[in-house]
Design goal:
- There is one protein chain.
- The chain is α/β, with parallel strands linked by helices and about 375 residues long.
- It folds into 2 domains: about 210 residues, Rossmann fold (3-Layer(aba) Sandwich), CATH 3.40.50; about 160 residues, Rossmann fold.
- It is about 40% helix and about 15% strand.
- Strand 6, helix 7 and strand 7 form a beta-alpha-beta unit.
Length: about 375
């Protein structure tokens, strides 16, 4: 079985890249394709085992590394120029364009789908408003381009033989948007990088990028109304000024932290608070690997990883009242949350389990395809 791996692009070492890392662990001889690749040496060694990916013509475009989003109307055409002929299986890691790769009837295309393109589907109107593109001539042009990409995205779902979703939440979105069934295989979490800590300190924790959909401002506003409870916030991003303005004396903003410092806070936190509607939410599992309970919004991937009243608390709505009620609920029942049991639960999402499941899925489907 000759296998090719197709990923959107390589810039950072985030959740989708961690999936590709496992793919190259399983199939180290596979060619890897991407629209562009600007990995540093450390991340290249981890994700691609030191090799270079095969990139598109976009790699040489000016300012691509920092301003690649300006070129997104070109991405559908560019991904179709990857020549993956000669491979028996094409495994795409897709959160936007990778699944649009062109394959032949003699090739099996399996897509590990992190999400359908969020800014052309469920976050379409939010994206336009936040980008100030909801009106005017620029808005009209943007809407036309997003409309074309939406049609392309819908059509190219038929190029995939099998979808794998990274959560039940994403599986529902694949069914609604593409009309396709999918099997759920949760993404890899490096649980072995964390240790269980049973002796917790008296603070709640947020770890996040400060962007609107993460809803960090909601959490900060909620704790501003609970001055007797300490909140530590780690992260940075465009919403920093808004979050600073809302923070009370009981809220400590630490900005970006090294992994070693971040890990200490994760291990010692009383509980982790998470208010985003996330596709899966790897950070939730990392906190549980530390034996730390998670207080999370129940819509999204958190409902797959957090067991209500056992490894954390799930709340119903993205508003301050719901967060306050969930924190008070946790305070009243905190003795029932066992760090050892929480950590054991996190192990079910380990990288080892992910690689076993992915390998079995690909080999089984390829065996059926050949017959």
């Amino acid at each position: 079985m000759k296998l090719a791996i197709v990923h959107e692009w390589f810039l950072d070492y985030m959740g989708s890249e961690k999936c590709v890392e496992s793919f190259t662990n399983l199939w180290p001889d596979a060619d890897v394709y991407a629209l562009f690749d600007f990995l540093n040496d450390e991340h290249r060694e981890i994700i691609l085992k030191g090799k270079n990916s095969k990139t598109s013509y976009l790699q040489k475009f000016p300012f691509m590394e920092k301003h690649f989003r300006n070129y997104f109307p070109l991405f559908p055409f560019a991904v179709e120029q990857h020549d993956v002929t000669g491979n028996d299986v094409v495994l795409t890691s897709s959160h936007s364009f990778a699944k649009g790769i062109i394959t032949s009837v003699n090739q099996l295309h399996i897509c590990y789908c992190h999400t359908p393109i969020r800014y052309v589907w469920d976050l379409y109107h939010q994206y336009l408003k936040e980008s100030n593109l909801d009106k005017g001539f620029k808005g009209y042009i943007a809407k036309r381009m997003l409309h074309k990409i939406r049609l392309w995205d819908s059509t190219t779902s038929n190029r995939v033989d099998y979808f794998i979703a990274n959560s039940n939440h994403v599986a529902k979105r694949i069914k609604k948007i593409y009309g396709k069934d999918s099997e759920v295989i949760f993404p890899p979490v490096d649980t072995d990088k964390f240790e269980t800590e049973s002796n917790k300190d008296d603070y709640y924790l947020v770890v996040s990028r400060f962007v609107p959909y993460k809803k960090v401002d909601l959490i900060v506003n909620a704790f501003a109304q609970m001055p007797d409870k300490k909140l530590v916030v780690i992260g940075d991003g465009p919403d920093m000024n808004k979050i600073k303005a809302a923070a009370g004396k009981n809220i400590e903003l630490l900005g970006h932290q090294s992994f070693s410092e971040l890990k200490k806070y994760m291990m010692k936190a009383k509980a982790f608070v998470f208010a985003a509607e996330e596709d899966f939410g790897i950070t939730n599992v990392e906190l549980m690997a530390c034996g730390t309970p998670v207080i999370a919004y129940k819509i999204g991937g958190a409902s797959d990883s957090v067991i209500h009243n056992k490894t954390g608390i799930l709340f119903d709505e993205q508003n301050t009242k719901s967060i306050i009620d969930a924190v008070n609920n946790f305070e009243q029942n905190k003795d029932k949350f066992d760090p050892i049991e929480i950590s054991k639960h996190a192990e079910s999402f380990s990288r080892k389990n992910f690689e076993i499941n992915i390998k079995e899925f690909v080999e089984t489907k390829y065996g059926q395809f050949r017959n």
